[in-house]
Design goal:
Layout lengths: L14 E4 L5 E6 L4 E5 L7 E4 L3 E3 L2 H21 L1
């Protein structure tokens, strides 16, 4: 971790990457130092320390968009 930490705005709906796990997810609860995230395509969420979070980079944002589109397409085929 660098000595200069990025300023991270943590609020519901923002896409962040958890440095401790390498996972990227949307914030679903932002109370206190503990932040709850959920994967872009849905699934089991996880809890992360606010200090471990950073903004998602361009590659991670693109990956999240593709995951959302693919999940929607899968759901439509099932119905």
């Amino acid at each position: 971790m660098s000595s200069e930490q990025e300023t991270v705005e943590i609020h519901i709906g923002v896409l962040l990457t958890d440095r401790s796990t390498g996972r990227t997810g949307f914030v679903v609860n932002d109370e206190g130092q503990s932040v709850q995230l959920r994967p872009p395509a849905g699934g089991e969420g996880w809890e992360a320390s606010a200090d471990d979070l950073r903004p998602a980079d361009a590659r991670e944002r693109l990956h999240a968009k593709v995951a959302v589109v693919n999940a929607r397409a899968r759901r439509r085929r099932v119905l």
